[in-house]
Amino acid sequence: MATDCAAWLNANPIEAEDLSDSLVSEEEDDTGSVSNKNIKNEINGNWLSLSSNSIHEARLKAKAKRRLRKNSSRDSGRGDSLSDNGDAVRGTSVAPASPKSKLLDRKSRLGKGRGLPKKGGAGGKGVWGRSGEVYEQEAVDQKDPNYDEAQENCVYETVVPPLDERDFENTVTPIVQEYFEHGDINEVAELLSELNLGPLRSEVPSLAVSLALEAKASHRELTSRLLADLCGPVLSRSDMESSFDKLLLELPDLVLDTPRAPQLVGQFIARAVSDQILSKSYIEAYKGRVDCQYTRVSLDRATVLLKMSMEGLRIDNQWGPGGGQRPVTQLIKEMNLLLKEYILSGDSKEAERCLRDLEVPHFHHEFVYEAIVMVLESKGEKTLKMVLQLLKSLSASSVITLDQMRRGYERVYMDIAEINIDVPRAYFILEQVVDQSFSTGIIDVKLRDLCPCRGRKRFVSEGDGGVVKVESY
User: Fold this and answer.
1) 359-402: per-residue pLDDT in tens?
2) Whether the Cβ atoms of residue 278 and residue 250 lie closer than 8 Å to each other
3) Cβ atoms 47, 38 nearer than 8 A
4) pTM score over 0.85
């Protein structure tokens, strides 16, 4: 057979181009039969022996065609296909997208447009519109069955319901208590103006005064300032008068919690008259109409204070120099007066009470400093003993803490060089004060060792026999 094929090829030579064209153009008809073009490329079912390169290319193209037919039969009409020369043609299969990505895809599936989201991304289900979009005001349709002519010219305002007695006390009490801490009158006025107090407006001063009766002296001073500043912008003078009338009627109940309530209410009345939030005839209007003894005591106290004010007493200082709201210079002055009074009287209990009334525990180191400086400037042993006794008493009762005591001594150590300019024996006296303070248990060893001493050159004269002189002042 091989010899016959070789003889036939020698008799009928075929060009390679004709063979490649016949192989490339090989197609099947609709019935699946092979065209006649392929007959001349084989003899008795055997391929003709061509060059190896052309046969290899023919096999690859035939394999690609078979694969293309197989895919086109599965996915007919979907995607794009490849032509013989490798170009994209409609009908090829494309990897389908996942169902989840199709559900979340907001692009048009019709194949139209530029591929942008529908309605600019604001057209999904349950979407009111894109962010920042402002709708125009709709015109009123008078033919609407729900149209009401009476509501066309309505003006809507925010209405705050008036407070009842229970809500009033629960709302105003925290405001006053916070004011005792920060002392900002403008904040209290702003908070009260936001409330619809209604007829309970006159209850604000009486509630503030009743809370101040159980508080400190500094809180009573703040309450007096609050009433003076609220009268006018927030409260009227008639509200003040009705509020103090209620306080005088409630004195029998206030005495149960605060035994000094009649005297304190009398001081509030005198301060209110002095601040011109109560009329001068307010006290005189009660003459001959008072049956309660507590009310009588309160009015008598206010009358006495007003008479003393005419003689030069300042009623604005009737609550005492309490609280950290006062200037530092005034607090230092009060501490010096307290020490001088103690040196004259020797009453340590009264000095302790006065120091507590100042209500400045963070400033007690100034009291220790002033006490030691007073000892350095004195000329006798009496002041030293009395000051040490007072400091021992205040330290034992914890009125002055260890930290404040230490800071007071350290301040003296730092300023001893300047004090020595006015007091030449300051170093020597300070050593005595520190030693006796340590022996009485006021300070510890570490603070005693920090006491400074003035170094001096000591000279030996010829008649001393080489003995170093003892330093004396």
Assistant:
1) 888 999 999 999 999 999 987 789 999 999 999 999 999 899 99
2) no
3) no
4) no
